Amino acid sequence: MADTASAVQQLMQQLKSMGSNADVRTRSSAEEVVKDYLWITLSAVFTAIAVNVFFQSTGLAPGGITGLAIIFSLITHIPVSYMSLMISIPLLILATILLGKGFGIKTLYITLITPVCMGLVPMVDLSALFSEMPWFIAPLIAAIAGGVLVGAAVGIALNRQCATGGTDVIALLIQYVFRFLKVPTILFCLDGSVVVASGIISGNAWIAGFSLFSLFIIMQTIRKVTAHKQPQEAH
């Protein structure tokens, strides 16, 4: 009888321990989800600041869907925020199908919240702000500061297993098919094409040059931000 009571007591303790562990895992999972969305919201804010403060007024288009949106906005006069959605949503649907629902949901969130952030962040005419200084100061500041912000935005998104809805989505889709290619290499080729297009459309070689320089800053920032994730991802 004593043995039976002891066995029942041990079973109850095990069940209680299992329940406690499940609660800890649930709390940990919920905290991780909240952390994911806080980080990717910050990523969207960084993108909005880069576009509204640094890129749009100077005409720089350092690659990405944002760069494409800026170029098409100049041609069609459709606001950059709307143009960005028009390009991103079809890519998002394809990425969700191929890369998974979790990736798709977070990327959908960042795709939708980025135009909202663009609407909240005030536009700054950087060229007018530095009109008293040599002409190259405004695009140089835009290339460096905007490049760091966009690179950080993309890096944060990749670290949280999603994308910004830009050419990083295209790069991940290409890597899904050609797994031997590295995402930064694919991004450089894709975004370099956007830079060339921006130079042709603007007819300004200097703008293309500063855009290319900004693209270099973006790539280096992405590598720095994602560097600590590389050992975990290698398998």
Concise structural overview:
By secondary structure, the protein is mainly alpha-helical. The chain has 10 helices and no strands.
Descriptive report:
37% of the residues are buried. It is built from 10 helices and no strands. The C terminus is likely disordered. Helix 1 packs antiparallel against helix 6. It has 235 residues and is mainly alpha-helical. It starts with a helix and ends with a helix. It is 81% helix and 0% strand.
Describe this protein with a few key phrases.
235 residues; mainly alpha; globular; disordered C terminus
Element layout with pairings:
Elements: H1 2-55, H2 64-76, H3 80-99, H4 101-120, H5 126-129, H6 137-159, H7 167-177, H8 183-202, H9 205-226, H10 230-233
Helix content: over 70%
> Could you list the spans in which at least 5 consecutive residues all have pLDDT below 50?
231-235
- Total helices: the number is 10
Topology as a string of helices (H) and strands (E)? HHHHHHHHHH
Q: Tell me about the biggest sheet? A: none
Give the total of beta strands. Answer: 0
Mean pLDDT: 80
Radius of gyration: 23 Å
Task: Please give the oligomerization state of what you see.
Answer: single chain
Structure classification: mainly alpha
Shape: globular
